[in-house]
Amino acid sequence: MLGWIRERFRRGPVVPVVRLSGVIASGGLLGGRSLSVESVAPLLKRAFDTRGAKAVALALNSPGGSPVQSALIAQRIRLHAKEKNLPVIAFVEDVAASGGYWLACAADEIVVDPSSIVGSIGVISAGFGFQDLIARIGVERRVHTSGERKSMLDPFRPEKADDVERLKRLQAEIHDGFKDWVRERRGKLLKTDEAVLFSGEFWTGKRGIEMGLADSMGELRSTLQARYGEKVHLPVIGPRRRLLSRFGLHSGPGGGLDDIGPATLAALEERAHWQRFGL
Which entry of 38, 141, 196, 262 is 20 to 30 Å from 181 by CA? Predict the structure, then answer.
């Protein structure tokens, strides 16, 4: 109640800050620690509905993930920005790569640290092949389908050239959508040949500015104070999380802990996303 009263009568400009940090994946994946349109939408609404907001800032730190969720979140940002007629400024922290850069492009301006990682405009699919392992331990794989392509890329069977070619076609279609989005949002700001920009490579924030992937260098608070005055209020709009959830754990019906195994696996998968960028 007191917080609402303070916000109601606060003087000075307001720029709400939405923190978008983590791997991008559908709700429920990665132990509920991921960014998805389901988890982000309420935060965006609260930010853009903030009374007296002059702009909305995105504190962005993501190595990417689901292209679908990336597109949905980005579209939601643009929808609110258009409805409220508010500029959106993305501040990249450690990394905005792949789907993370997709989100950055939803902003009207991208501000980076010189050592931030940006780019990785591409599509990746990774997995393992276990056919030799199961043969060695005497396990027989039995799969029955009603469609000849239903078991495509089964990790327990030898890889087929036709399956790989089909996967590459799907990746190319998704990559085309990513490239179209970057062209739409960055347009004439891009200063490097598209063959390089869209190769999947990533660069430092400083190099990203030279290539047109970002606009300037800066830190969120000092940049916004310089632009809107030292008295600018920067309320952080974030999810309300319980103590156990911060550690990837959840309390069960009896008050104990459950999902410890899945949380551990989710943490390992999340770690793999970050390690691609040396983080």
Answer: 38
CATH hierarchy code of domain 1-120+201-241: 3.90.226.10
What are the structure tokens assigned to 246, written together?
Answer: 């911060």
Report the distance separating Cα 20 and Cα 126, nearest Å: 24
Gap between the Cα atoms of 195 and 72, Å rounded = 26
Q: What is the pLDDT along the chain (279 residues), one digit of tens a residue?
A: 555 555 555 567 999 999 999 999 986 555 556 899 999 999 999 999 999 999 999 999 999 899 999 999 999 999 999 999 999 999 999 999 999 999 999 999 999 999 999 998 987 666 566 666 666 776 767 666 666 666 666 666 677 777 677 777 887 888 989 999 999 999 999 999 999 999 999 999 999 999 999 999 999 999 999 999 999 999 999 876 544 444 445 444 444 444 445 555 455 556 566 556 555
- Cβ proximity of 98 and 121 under 8 Å: yes
Contact in structure between 169 and 175 (CB atoms under 8 Å): no
The amino acid sitting at 152 is: M
Q: Where are the domains of the chain?
A: 1-120+201-241, 122-177
Helices (H), 99-193: 99-104, 131-136, 161-186
For the chain, count helices (H), then strands (E): 10, 10
Q: Which residues contact 51 (CB under 8 A, 6 or more apart)?
A: 7, 8, 14
Burial 135-156 (b: 16+ CB within 10 A, else e): eeeeeeeeeeeeeeeeeeebeb
